[in-house]
Amino acid sequence: MSSDIHGPPSAPTPDTASLDATQREVPSWSDPLAQAATRPLGGPLGTHAAVGRHWFWTPLRVCLLLAVLALTAGWFGKAACIQQYVTDDGDAELDWRSGRQYVAMCYSDIVPLYTAERLDEPDSFPYATSWVENEGTEHEQVRYMEYPVLSGLFQWVNAKLTHGWTAAAESGWLPGALPVAVYFNITAFFLSAAWLVTVWAVARTARRRVWDAAIVAVSPLVVVHAFTNFDALATAAAATGLLAWSRRKPVLAGVLLGVGAAAKLYPLFFLGPLLVLCLRAGKMKAWGSTAGTAVLTWGVINLPFMLFLREGWSEFFRLNTQRDMDPDSLYNVVSYFTGWQGFDGPLAPGEAPTVLNTVSGALFLALCAGIAYVGLSAPRRPRVAQLCFLVVAAFLLTNKVWSPQYSLWLVPLAVLALPRWRLLLGWMVVDALVWAPRMFYYLGTGNKGLPEGWFLGTVVVRDIVVVLLCVLVLREIYRPSRDLVRVAGTDDPTGGVLDGAEDSVVLRPRRRQGGERPERGDHSLARRNSMSAA
């Protein structure tokens, strides 16, 4: 009796190794990490266990609870940076003395941006309020809000809520705290909600592999970077955009991707993989609806600022053009370890790194062209999540900036593209651990911090791991029998109109002498079943 409740089958049978597409994947049977994690709780799911009958604890709700726990841990990790102390004059100040934000590894952009973006001023408004930076020096510059429109408005709304909270606290209605601490907590609340939406969307998109959303929920990258910046807003929009596409709602998908692009630009990258896959499947009408709606949505959100606050609105684009290579970009790694100064060298104030921008853009476009070729020539049409993951990873690897929180972009895509728990958790741990040497590098060697070379060494390890993930995704594209999503007979849960569609345009590699004919790109259900039986 106990074996029926707690024990998995002694050997995989056809019924458990390849469940029907309408049934739920059981991670404790198919994934070694999940199987090991269940041992303290009684072992893997029993073969006769009642599944799907609990009145409340569905897999989605369990994943959301896990996400709440991870986000709580993430908040405690940042809480050290919103502590205060009392000065000799009796004033309360934020306690960032002695490099506390780096030593405690609690740094968050949210805290300094409250004053840096003039959000603490009651009459400020993003893209209208300006200030002079480095006044009186050769680096003097007029500055505006440096974020895309929705991210800027998100900060402004939270600042207004902060002003309301502090006013109520002064009247005795609410507990008081430093305004910047109140601002951080309000922002963290809404970012948490955005990440919960991301988890929900991944669970709904994964369908029969709903438990894969648990990796999104408990990712170490979430614990470290959920509150480092505002990227959870974009991940929520991107994930729900993919969900809408998977449910054959291309217009809604376009709206959500356009909203995401107004917060961070990367959701627009999804239009490239969708273009390639829709071209291959002859579904260009659906792609046109999504792309047109995405661009229109982005334009509607941005147009008022483009027309009436153009100088402030263009600040984001200007800074990204003039920005030099980030400390943890591959270009900085090459420059540091080789001593090569070919990426423009020292720049004058306001001067753009033309060579670096050109090299970065050319490399990204070249990789996108290669990914497009893969999408059109693979024996079987790749899944949407696979190509989206490859494109976003290519952007991060070739971009001159890889801010640490950008790794959150990859988390939902990686789980949908390559749902191998142990592998993904290993990558996430490596990527999250880069935060520690980064903080101690910023602390400076004069304050007992790390030399730059130690930090860049961990950056190289992270990039190598991401490249390996890309290689594994490519391997599963060319060998669909190794794809855990397709091994049970499904085609593409994220595909929407592409799921099960016939190929229309395919680039076939030239056959070698005596070689086998490549498999036809037929995605009909009958052919998939015959392939599985073979």
UniProtKB/TrEMBL annotation:
<feature type="compositionally biased region" description="Basic and acidic residues">
    <location>
        <begin position="513"/>
        <end position="525"/>
    </location>
</feature>
<feature type="transmembrane region" description="Helical">
    <location>
        <begin position="422"/>
        <end position="441"/>
    </location>
</feature>
<dbReference type="Pfam" id="PF09594">
    <property type="entry name" value="GT87"/>
</dbReference>
<feature type="transmembrane region" description="Helical">
    <location>
        <begin position="180"/>
        <end position="203"/>
    </location>
</feature>
<dbReference type="GO" id="GO:0005886">
    <property type="term" value="C:plasma membrane"/>
</dbReference>
<feature type="region of interest" description="Disordered">
    <location>
        <begin position="1"/>
        <end position="25"/>
    </location>
</feature>
<protein>
    <submittedName>
        <fullName>Putative integral membrane protein</fullName>
    </submittedName>
</protein>
<keyword id="KW-1003">Cell membrane</keyword>
<comment type="similarity">
    <text>Belongs to the glycosyltransferase 87 family.</text>
</comment>
<feature type="transmembrane region" description="Helical">
    <location>
        <begin position="286"/>
        <end position="309"/>
    </location>
</feature>
<keyword id="KW-1133">Transmembrane helix</keyword>
<feature type="transmembrane region" description="Helical">
    <location>
        <begin position="215"/>
        <end position="245"/>
    </location>
</feature>
<keyword id="KW-0812">Transmembrane</keyword>
<dbReference type="GO" id="GO:0016758">
    <property type="term" value="F:hexosyltransferase activity"/>
</dbReference>
<feature type="transmembrane region" description="Helical">
    <location>
        <begin position="355"/>
        <end position="376"/>
    </location>
</feature>
<dbReference type="InterPro" id="IPR018584">
    <property type="entry name" value="GT87"/>
</dbReference>
<keyword id="KW-0808">Transferase</keyword>
<feature type="transmembrane region" description="Helical">
    <location>
        <begin position="251"/>
        <end position="279"/>
    </location>
</feature>
<feature type="transmembrane region" description="Helical">
    <location>
        <begin position="453"/>
        <end position="474"/>
    </location>
</feature>
<dbReference type="InterPro" id="IPR016570">
    <property type="entry name" value="UCP010361"/>
</dbReference>
<feature type="region of interest" description="Disordered">
    <location>
        <begin position="495"/>
        <end position="534"/>
    </location>
</feature>
<keyword id="KW-0472">Membrane</keyword>
